[in-house]
Design brief:
The complex is a heterotrimer of chains A (315), B (185) and C (155).
Chain A lengths: L2 H12 L4 H22 L9 H10 L11 H21 L14 H8 L2 H12 L3 H32 L4 H11 L2 H4 L1 H14 L25 H25 L8 H25 L9 H21 L4
Chain B lengths: L2 H12 L21 E3 L9 H5 L5 E6 L2 E7 L8 H5 L5 E3 L14 E10 L6 E4 H14 L6 H9 L2 H5 L5 H14 L3
Antiparallel strand pairs in B: 1-4, 2-3, 3-5, 5-6
Helix pairs in contact in B: 4-5
Chain C lengths: L1 H17 L1 E7 L1 E2 L3 H9 L11 E3 L8 E5 L1 E2 L1 H13 L5 E5 H5 L23 E3 L6 H20 L3
Parallel strand pairs in C: 1-3, 1-4, 4-6, 6-7
Antiparallel strand pairs in C: 2-5
Helix pairs in contact in C: 2-5
Classes of the chains: A mainly alpha (315), B alpha+beta (185), C alpha/beta (155).
């Protein structure tokens, strides 16, 4: 009696949209990012299996735990980050209007779950016991303070307009009246900028700034723990692109779950390419300069749209 | 963005500038300085290259009446001083790159020559080809000052024996005359 | 059981060959010619990323260490420490004639402390002053092959 729902749940967790599908599809997204970056720089890029080779090679390398690190925190950080991202992927609507774990209020839970990886990376950096890790963690938490405001503000305009805080409600509203990217354009732009900072990609890749602080919070990680962080990158690309697609481009929703799943995948790739493109053409900002695109521009735009929604001036 | 930038970006998007290196020969610019390689037929064994090398990459090994010149790329700076100073135009910096290997003594270029043995003490001191070259040049350019037998004397007696006063013919005659005069016969 | 082990082993071998992360460790006294050629190897012209080779920011993420420069007294301990921080399996490639033997800086100078392979075990030597980026790529490929042979032996 409980076998069939149990099997369906297991299939959703492990195959689609769970482990196997997210790792494979996320690997392709990261490969697309690296390939487009290579081609825009005038060189050929890596082959399609590059992400999988990187992750697997890191998994089988020796894991060294530094002497001055706090062992529990050091080992727990990547695991917590990966677990949070994995649950976030299960909350996303990979079946069109439905997600694997839908419930009331899951949009807010999703946004909170996506905050955990940032904290986990900062936590891990401080647990490493090396000065590079501490500086990297400080930068990561500063960036968190900067980008949380525009991210939540633009998400709040979406919740207000959709009149619901669950993902299925948001998608219903967009399927009926059109995507929020067109109805709330300023909030859309603000969310794109804030999502770029969440992904820690240029111009906001201050936390793991190579050539400045060795590797930031990732400095002392080697072997399987570093492989887990690499998987976190893969999942983060997937989760943030899918979140943008859910909140702002929910519109073509047909009703057939297979077609909807394919359309959702296309939307994820579209947003991943947008983030990749912004990353490729920009240099890096300093941590104190990261304030002006995030608070002066993005938060202001989101605020304007909030006022518009509250005053009812939206289509 | 200006349209020229977009066009250029798109051009390199489809046609990357990457060289097809392992699949094709690499590109070498003109006057490229590769590893120096000896030419066995032209080299005289005069060791001018070894004297001039700033990194002491060229070693001279004399064994069993043969002189071996060895240039080791592990120390070579590819400055081309040896190529500049070679009188026989026998060492050239090739247009290739030194192939990496696990054995650091594997990258070398060697050349071996037979040497002339001193008539008086038997020590080998100059290579045959170098001696022949010296003789040819001296006969060509200074035939009015020095004759053939004197050249043969200098080229078959090693420098230690040559500097011993009694071996030099004119001094030998002087010594004999002095000995006769001083009653030391 | 044995077929699964073989599959994982061949997967491991494939992953180690297709994804190599380099770390550039200077050995003290160097003119930076070799550093510039290493940086040139990751430019679009020679593009090593298509082989899966990346420049890793931290030695703890690296597979192959590229050592360039003459071994000096104050770099000795630091190079040894960097070598110890790189996780197994690792390979060391000595780039340029300074790292192989000291080049024009003879071993009788006041800051010099021997050659690089007296401090850490070197796997591949790349001659050149500085070596061409293609030679560096070939050296890294030889190091990967040596690594494969070493990890294939049962220890």
């Amino acid at each position: 009696m409980y076998i069939v729902p149990l099997l369906i749940a297991l299939a959703e967790i492990i195959i689609y949209p769970g482990l196997i599908f997210s790792i494979l599809f996320g690997g392709i997204i990261v490969w697309l990012y690296r390939k487009v970056r290579a081609r825009l720089q005038g060189r050929r890029g890596p082959p399609w299996y590059q992400t999988y080779a990187d992750v697997f090679k890191l998994l089988i390398k020796e894991t060294i735990i530094p002497l001055r690190a706090w062992k529990v925190g050091f080992i727990a950080a990547p695991m917590i980050s990966l677990a949070a991202l994995f649950v976030a992927v299960l909350l996303l609507p990979f079946f069109g209007k439905e997600s694997a774990l839908g419930f009331l209020g899951d949009a807010i839970v999703l946004l909170y779950l996506l905050t955990i990886p940032t904290f986990a990376i900062a936590f891990g950096g401080m647990a490493s016991g090396s000065p590079y890790g501490i500086v990297g963690s400080g930068r990561e938490t500063s960036l968190l303070v900067w980008y949380e405001l525009p991210l939540w503000l633009s998400a709040a305009t979406v919740f207000a307009l959709a009149n619901s805080i669950s993902i299925s409600g948001i998608i219903e509203e967009q399927a009926l009246h059109g995507p929020f990217a067109i109805r709330l354009p300023l909030a859309f732009i603000a969310f794109l900028i804030a999502a770029q900072a969440k992904l820690a990609k240029r111009p906001f890749d201050i936390p793991h700034a190579e050539t400045e602080i060795v590797a930031g919070p990732y400095t002392e990680y080697s072997g399987s723990l570093r492989a887990l962080f690499e998987l976190c990158e893969v999942f983060k690309w997937l989760a943030v692109s899918a979140l943008t697609a859910t909140l702002f481009l929910g519109w073509p929703v047909i009703g057939n779950p297979v077609a909807d799943a394919l359309i959702f995948i296309v939307k994820i790739v579209f947003f991943a390419l947008i983030f990749a493109f912004i990353d490729i053409i920009n240099p890096r900002l300093r941590i104190e300069q990261a304030g002006w695109p995030l608070w002066k521009i993005a938060a202001a735009l989101a605020l304007i749209d909030t006022i518009r929604v509250c005053m009812g001036l939206v289509i | 963005m200006k349209s020229s930038i977009v066009k250029e970006a798109l051009k390199y998007f489809v046609n990357p500038v990457t060289e097809a290196f392992p699949a094709a020969k690499p590109y070498f610019p003109k006057k490229y300085r590769g590893p120096p390689v000896y030419d066995q037929d032209k080299c005289m064994g005069c060791t001018a290259c070894a004297h001039v090398c700033p990194a002491d990459a060229i070693t001279v090994i004399e064994k069993d009446g043969k002189r071996t010149l060895e240039v080791w790329y592990g120390k070579c700076t590819f400055c081309a001083r040896c190529e500049e100073s070679c009188p026989a135009d026998a060492i050239h910096l090739m247009e290739e790159f030194g192939v990496p290997s696990e054995d650091k003594l594997a990258f070398k270029s060697t050349v071996t020559h037979d040497m002339v043995k001193c008539k008086l003490c038997g020590k080998p001191f100059i290579t045959i080809r170098h001696a022949e070259w010296i003789k040819k040049n001296l006969l060509e350019k200074m035939s009015d000052v020095v004759g053939s037998e004197e050249i043969d004397f200098f080229l078959t007696v090693c420098e230690d024996c040559r500097h011993k006063v009694e071996n030099i013919p004119e001094f030998r005659k002087l010594l004999i005359r002095a000995a006769i005069k001083g009653g030391k016969v | 059981m044995s077929s699964k082990k073989c599959f994982l082993c061949s997967l491991a071998k494939w992953a180690r060959r297709k994804s190599v992360w380099l770390y550039h460790a200077p050995a003290g006294g160097l003119c930076n010619g070799c550093d510039i050629e290493i940086a040139a190897a990751i430019t679009p012209r020679y593009d090593v990323e298509r082989f899966g080779i990346l420049l890793a920011p931290s030695p703890r993420h690296a597979d192959v260490i590229l050592v360039a420069g003459q071994m000096t007294k104050h770099s000795k301990e630091r190079l040894l420490r960097v070598y110890q921080q790189v996780p197994e399996p690792k390979a060391v490639v000595a780039i340029g004639s300074c790292a192989i033997s000291g080049n024009v800086f003879t071993t009788e100078n006041y800051p010099v402390a021997g050659t690089v392979d007296q401090i850490i075990p070197v796997d591949v030597y790349v001659p050149g002053c500085p070596p061409k980026p293609e030679a560096i790529i070939l050296g890294v490929v030889k190091a990967i092959e040596k690594l494969e042979k070493r990890t294939a032996e049962p220890t």
